[in-house]
Specification:
heterodimer; A: alpha/beta; 4-stranded antiparallel beta sheet; B: alpha+beta; 2 domains; 10-stranded mixed beta sheet; two-stranded antiparallel sheet; about 15% strand; elongated
């Protein structure tokens, strides 16, 4: 069936605070398949963000492996990690973290800056992405002139810029009002179905988490055995009979294997 | 940010102005020494050529080469200082009859009726001097005199020189013709009479403040000033250099109070005096110059230090302020190198902006800044015995027209300034940018 995008093996992270040792993660084993939409739930301090940082090459585990598309990123030297962050991972933050002095279009282009893509290609891709997140016509606006929801849309487009293997979202709806929250989670769901984007989201909001496919629970750095199934927001969806991938309900051909449904 | 740019601009302006100030001071010193040398050699030549000349003046002023010469080769008229005294024709005849005398050339030098006030700035304060607008030199217009002796100015720039028998005409110095706004053929009024300008000459000495003077026939001068038969100066020429001392003694004995006699020996002594004085001035200015360079060096070091320190602290502050942004950039895949270069470029851009401000401040404030920061080349001798009065109005324009305030910011200096700005900006940003590139993205993202 679907290939494995991300896998962790016996992941441990110990922080040292003076003489005290804090075990943020212990023995986390996780598997993410291509096209998954997973949410990780847990109370504050349960190690959600720590886990996400390990997966996104922002931090190194004390023990264990993180295998991203077949590469153990814990073995990659620091100097080369930027390439993995740029090409394989897309980050979405709670506070959007857009560059305030850049327009929407420039913010989305940012991760492509050091890639081999030509300027035209980058522009084209950026417009495509902004259209995908429903921001056509607002390309030239700076973050200060966009609403919170719109800013998060720009951030989502930026995360997708280099077609990453996985999108890591850290409380993406944490700074949004009720209505916007659902718009954003629906957008993530739609991207997951339409584009096959693999999404891993950290949240402590069970209503939001319920919109993903799989819900995992972290508690005191341990991944609990229980796992819940959620309903993807776009309930009306198809699955490809050939490869099993999720598809929008009006699809005639599989977006993943290309075969006729 | 704006304040930083302005502060940086100031320190850059200092960096720009100081070299310009040094160059200006160097030029002033060089001018001084060049003028000095050419003047001394001119005078040496003049003294050699006029070895047979015995100068007899009616006033107490020492005659040509006394103190500071002005309109070379003619000596200074005695205007403005005491009563004008004259000798009459019998004296001329008597001197002519002394043995060994070849010629006696009488002059009548009087001041114009019009006066002018001038303010002079000196290190001892500023003086306002009221002096005659110009000098009238009545010259004995006899062909043999005109041909043999340098009694008339030679550098005629317009019109013609004076000839034997000319009357009702005059030769005017260019600075005076400019002052009157007259040209060749125009008329000039002097002592109630009108004279036609036949020629305009360039007075010796550079600048516009050379002696204003007109030359006319001695008889015309005598008539308009009511001094029929009188002279104020007699140039006595001996047949031979060996006769000079004897003739001078005879004249001095015959007219102890009426005439003041100077021979080439006196003039040589004067020249030596002057050489000494110029030497002192030159040494003064050279020592000032070396002092200037030391000061300038120290100031430039301080300015460079200040510039890079300002850049350093500004960029450190910027990096701190934008820690989160650095974290985001790294999280979305910026390499250490791109983060570092981004901050380096920012530092350089900031310095470049500061350089623009600095150049503007520099252009506007260069004279003020450099005079504040650098000692000036002193163009006046500082010894107490050189009294200003002794210099009279003979402030030689060639020497005193100092260019030390005219600081030119040439394109080369500007280019250098921009180059230095970029370099110092880069230098100052090096550590902050490196620090930014080393920031752990995870910790930076946590930063609020």
């Amino acid at each position: 069936m679907s290939e494995l995008v991300l896998k962790t093996e016996r992941l441990d992270k110990v922080y040292e605070l003076g003489r005290r040792k804090i075990r943020a993660l212990s023995d986390v084993n996780l598997q993410v398949k291509k096209g998954d939409f997973i949410s990780i739930m847990g109370p504050s301090g349960s190690g959600k963000t720590t886990l996400l940082n390990m997966l996104g090459c922002l931090d190194k585990p004390t023990l264990g492996k993180v295998i991203l598309e077949g590469v153990d990123i814990t073995e990659v030297p620091e100097k080369k990690l930027y390439k993995i962050r740029r090409d394989k991972v897309g980050f979405i933050f709670q506070t959007f973290n857009l560059m305030p002095y850049l327009s929407a279009i420039e913010n989305v282009e940012l991760p492509m800056e050091s890639t081999k893509k030509s300027k035209d290609e980058r522009r084209k891709r950026t417009r495509e992405l902004l259209k995908m997140v429903g921001l056509s016509g607002r390309e030239k606006h700076r973050p200060s002139r966009l609403s919170a929801g719109e800013q998060q849309r720009v951030a989502i487009a930026r995360a997708l810029a280099n077609n990453p293997a996985i999108v890591l979202a850290d409380e993406p709806t944490g700074n949004l009002d009720q209505k916007t929250k659902y718009e954003i989670i629906r957008l993530l769901g739609k991207l997951n179905i339409d584009q096959g984007t693999t999404v891993m989201m950290v949240t402590h909001d069970s209503h939001i988490a319920a919109h993903s496919e799989r819900m995992l629970f972290l508690s005191d750095g341990k991944l609990l055995a229980k796992e819940k199934k959620g309903t993807l927001v776009t309930e009306k969806m198809l699955r490809c009979p050939h490869c099993g991938q999720k598809l929008p309900e009006d699809a005639e051909y599989c977006l993943h294997c290309g075969r006729k449904l | 940010m704006l304040l930083v740019v302005i502060a940086l601009g100031f320190s850059m302006a200092i960096m720009i102005c100081i070299p310009a100030g040094i160059v200006a001071n160097q030029e002033a010193t060089q001018n001084l020494s060049e003028n000095y040398e050419s003047m001394i050699s001119d005078m040496q030549e003049e003294i050699n050529e006029t070895a047979t000349l015995i100068e007899c003046r009616t006033s107490s002023r020492q005659g040509r080469f006394a103190g500071m010469p002005s309109g070379m080769p003619e000596g200074l008229p005695s205007f403005g200082f005491g009563q004008e005294v004259f000798v009459n024709e019998t004296v001329v005849d008597e001197i002519r009859s002394i043995e060994g005398v070849k010629d006696v050339v009488p002059f009548l030098e009087v001041s114009s009726e019009e006066t002018t006030s001038e303010t002079m700035d000196t290190p001892r304060g500023s003086f306002t001097i009221s002096r005659p607008l110009y000098t009238i030199s009545g010259v004995c217009l006899i062909s043999s005199f005109i041909d043999s002796y340098s009694i008339l100015p030679t550098n005629i720039t317009a019109g013609a020189p004076l000839h034997e028998g000319d009357s009702g005409v005059l030769l005017i110095s260019s600075n005076l013709s400019d002052y009157f706004g007259v040209e060749v053929g125009d008329k000039v009024e002097s002592y109630g009479e009108y004279f036609t300008v036949v020629g305009i000459y360039e007075p010796a000495g550079q600048g516009t403040s050379g002696t204003r003077q007109v030359y006319m026939s001695i008889s015309d001068t005598q008539i308009i000033t009511g001094n029929t038969g009188n002279s104020s100066r007699l140039d006595v020429y001996a047949e031979d250099v060996s006769d000079v001392d004897g003739i001078a003694e005879v004249i001095e004995a015959a007219y102890p109070s009426e005439l003041h006699v100077t021979t080439y020996e006196d003039r040589l002594a004067n020249l030596e005096n002057m050489q000494e004085m110029y030497q002192t001035t030159l040494e003064n200015s050279e020592s000032t110059l070396s002092q200037t360079q030391t000061t300038a060096f120290q100031e430039i070091v301080i300015a460079i230090g200040a510039t890079s320190l300002i850049a350093l602290f500004t960029m450190l502050y910027t990096v701190r302020e934008r820690t989160k942004e650095i974290g985001v950039l790294k999280a979305i895949g910026f390499s250490n190198w791109s983060v570092m270069s981004q901050f380096m470029v920012e530092g350089m851009l900031m310095s470049l902006m500061a350089a623009v401000v600095g150049v503007v401040i520099g252009i506007v404030g260069a004279p003020i800044l450099s005079s504040l920061l650098l000692p000036h080349v002193s163009l006046f001798p500082t010894q107490g015995e050189r009294q200003f009065g002794q210099w009279g109005e003979a402030t030689n324009p060639g020497i005193f027209q100092s260019e030390s305030t005219a600081i030119a910011l040439d394109p080369q200096t500007l280019l250098l300034a921009f180059g230095a700005a970029v370099l110092l900006g880069a230098f100052g940003s090096l550590y902050p940018a490196w620090k930014a590139s080393r920031t752990s993205p995870m910790e930076a993202l946590r930063h609020e």
